[in-house]
């Protein structure tokens, strides 16, 4: 396969599978293309293989079968192409993995480290990196928090710093592993909306693992559903039907609105029981 023959392809996994030590099959050999600018959400029950698939896309998890092919750098079969691919692939984590006692700006600047040699990163960052980091904070609405320490920010703000750090890397791809799992619903929507809008504006390819079907339907261009280490659904959200959900969630997902059980009504002022006096 030559990347040029698939003009929309950003990254391909080719017969790629992962078996962990102890013979734990986490992802059966699978072939999938991730296309340029697409916002893909991975759905599935806990243990279905979402993180494994996501993390194998930049070899944070080493595939044990098949390969990953980058349109930009070719097969990720040696340290050089893996390093180049990682420099253009930013990660956003559930627990953001920021340095809590450093400022938002210092954390965002770490997104630039891949562009500098080890010795250079010991020196103060160049002015253009500072400007870029500030611009990234501005894009996530946190320019005024640039000098605030991470531990002084709310969970949602911390995750927005995590996104700004990813943007500072000037990535062509963002991998986000359950980026809103620790946030309340309103903040989750805000953070996901922000991530989706920025990816759209910059043409960044995104692969996000989520637990919430509602967010996947609302924000994704494409949903990949996993069950038992296998892809069981791969299409736009509009094509996701109840029988697919049954397969992804092993029959435990109901799309119809749930009826909230009405509690047995108690009289507001119950009449005091007449005392039966045994005579
Ligand atoms: N480092 C590891 N060593 C051994 N087994 C692992 C390892 N990481 C994951 N697994 C196993 O691989 C399978 C897939 O795990 P994975 O974390 O990819 O699932 P997931 O869908 O992301 O789950 P969750 O939603 O809970 O994060 C599970 O059976 C899990 O126990």
Automatic annotation (TrEMBL):
Membrane protein topology class: Peripheral membrane protein
NCBIfam families, sorted: ABC_phnC (TIGR02315)
Gene Ontology molecular-function annotations: ABC-type phosphonate transporter activity; ATP binding; ATP hydrolysis activity
Name the UniProt record assigns to this protein: Phosphonate ABC transporter ATP-binding protein
EC number, UniProt record: 3.6.3.28
Region listing for Disordered, in residue ranges: 256-279
Boundaries of every ABC transporter domain copy: 11-253
Domain of life per record: Bacteria
Sorted UniProt keywords: ATP-binding, Cell inner membrane, Cell membrane, Hydrolase, Membrane, Nucleotide-binding, Translocase, Transport
Signal peptide: none
Keyword ATP-binding attached: yes
Gene: phnC
GO cellular component: plasma membrane
Origin species: Marinobacter flavimaris
Subcellular localization: Cell inner membrane
Any Pfam family matching the protein: ABC_tran
């Amino acid at each position: 396969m030559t990347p040029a023959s698939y003009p929309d392809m950003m990254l391909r996994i080719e017969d790629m599978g992962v078996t962990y030590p102890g013979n734990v099959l986490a992802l059966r050999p699978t072939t999938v293309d991730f296309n340029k600018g697409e916002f893909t959400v991975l759905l599935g029950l806990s243990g279905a293989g979402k993180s494994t698939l996501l993390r194998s896309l930049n070899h944070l998890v080493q595939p044990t079968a098949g390969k990953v092919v980058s349109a930009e750098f070719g097969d990720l079969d040696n340290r050089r192409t893996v390093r180049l691919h990682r420099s253009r692939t930013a990660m956003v984590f559930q627990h953001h993995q920021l340095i809590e006692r450093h400022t938002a700006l210092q954390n965002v600047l770490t997104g630039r480290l891949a562009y500098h040699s080890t010795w250079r990163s010991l020196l103060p960052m160049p002015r253009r990196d500072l400007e870029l980091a500030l611009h990234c904070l501005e894009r996530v609405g946190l320019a005024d928090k640039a000098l605030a320490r991470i531990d002084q920010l709310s969970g949602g703000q911390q995750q927005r710093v995590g996104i700004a750090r990813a943007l500072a890397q000037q990535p062509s791809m963002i991998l986000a592993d359950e980026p809103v799992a620790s946030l309340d619903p309103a903040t989750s929507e805000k953070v996901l909306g922000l991530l989706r809008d920025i990816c759209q504006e910059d043409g960044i390819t995104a692969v996000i693992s989520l637990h919430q079907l509602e967010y996947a339907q609302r924000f994704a261009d494409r949903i990949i559903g996993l069950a038992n280490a296998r892809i069981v659904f791969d299409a736009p959200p509009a094509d996701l039907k109840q029988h697919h959900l049954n397969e992804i969630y092993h029959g435990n997902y109901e799309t119809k609105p749930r009826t909230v059980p009405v509690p047995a009504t108690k009289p507001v002022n119950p009449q005091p029981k007449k005392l039966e006096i045994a005579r």
